[in-house]
Amino acid sequence: MKSRSQATAACKAGHVKVNGSTAKPSQKVSVGDTVTYRFQGFDRVLEVVQVLRTRVGAPIAQQAYVDHSEPRPEAYVMMAIPRRERGSGRPTKRERRELDRLRGRDTNTGRI
Asked: How far apart are CA 91 and CA 15, in angstroms?
């Protein structure tokens, strides 16, 4: 995590686990502990190798843990989101139905 406030929020939300149990923001870790957390939709698994007593820069902090995470998949292809041109006015009934179909909505009842 990039900041302490983000790490605290992730702990409070239950996204951080130490040795398999949910972690509190102030929980102490020791050498050999496994820290698992969710980051950008993927789980990261880190093993603590060294406990740092003071705040240090990123290169030194990276030496304090071993990353056991599975490699992320190659850049996956995202579908382009259709957008209407600005100033083109309200969508016609036909365009609205096509948009609803793309979004997976039932055009007859308006339900998802």
From this structure: 41
Say what the pLDDT of residue 39 is. 81
Q: Per this entry, what is the length of the chain? A: 112
Q: How far is it, in rounded angstroms, from Cα 39 to Cα 19? A: 18
Structure tokens at 9: 């929020």
Distant-in-sequence contacts of 59-62, Cβ < 8 A, 24+ apart: none
As a whole-number percent, the residues of the chain with pLDDT over 90 amount to 31
11 CB burial (10 A radius; 0-12, 13-18, 19+):
buried
Sort strands 65-67 and 21-22 into parallel, antiparallel or unpaired: unpaired
